[in-house]
Design a protein that fits this description.
Rossmann fold; 5 helices; 30% helix; P-loop_NTPase; 221 residues; Uridine kinase; six-stranded mixed beta sheet
Length: 221
């Protein structure tokens, strides 16, 4: 999260919620991917709508906590969070234990406390890089929320205002380097159009998964 971002409630697009409901209905057949937990990751560039979609998905999966990568990133090291994620979240889940994860206060540039994440049947991890290659062996379902870069840029400007333009310039530079190196678009099980809320395409699905076909909105057949 950029420093001093104004807190505004996200609007949940009904179409996006419908797609989330349909995906949620498929999650139960997936095998656990880390300990006894099915780890669902929701990736996408900054401003794509991944946070909104992750929250919509969680609303259809009672008891599934949403973990934000914003709490693992640090100023000046936006994508060096893998060791913290493994130590604080993945290792405890692998042991079927409650995880204890940092809460990072971006405006104050400090750790403000911690949050306990239970080893629930489903845990959702959202943020840029959530589907990074090195996490492939511990993810049950990879969702990529996809929008054109210019749409994402317009959204962040509208949401955060021109006062944070400096932050987004730094972020986009780091984000572009991450994307070029990791190519997360090569690995999603499901792509969600971050504008329409539709499933725009799907990659290889997990074994035995009745994931909805590409181009369909939940409830549309």
């Amino acid at each position: 999260m950029p420093p001093d971002r104004p807190e505004r409630p996200e609007r949940l697009d009904p179409r996006r919620c419908a797609t989330a409901a349909r995906l949620a209905a498929c999650v139960g057949v997936l095998p656990p991917s880390v300990g006894g937990t099915r780890l669902i990751v929701v990736d996408g560039i900054g401003g794509s709508g991944k946070t909104t979609f992750a929250d919509a998905l969680a609303a259809h999966l009672p008891g599934a906590p949403v973990v934000r990568l914003d709490d693992f990133a640090r100023p000046g090291d936006f994508f060096g969070w893998s060791p913290r994620l493994r130590e604080q979240l993945l290792a405890p889940l692998a042991r079927h234990e409650t995880a204890r994860c940092d809460i990072y206060d971006w405006p104050a540039y400090r750790i403000a406390g911690y949050r306990e994440i239970p080893a629930a049947p489903v845990v959702i991890l959202e943020g840029v890089g959530a589907a990074r290659r090195e996490l492939g062996t511990v993810t049950a379902l990879r969702v990529l929320v996809d929008v054109p870069a210019e749409v994402a840029a317009a959204r962040t400007l509208e949401r955060d205002g021109p006062g944070l333009a400096w932050f987004w310039r730094l972020w986009r530079t780091a984000e572009a380097a991450h994307l070029a190196a990791d190519r997360p678009w090569d690995r999603p099980h499901v792509r969600v159009d971050g504008t329409s809320g539709r499933l725009s395409s799907a990659g290889p699905v997990p074994p035995g998964s009745p994931l909805p076909r590409a181009g369909a909105v939940a409830g549309s057949g």
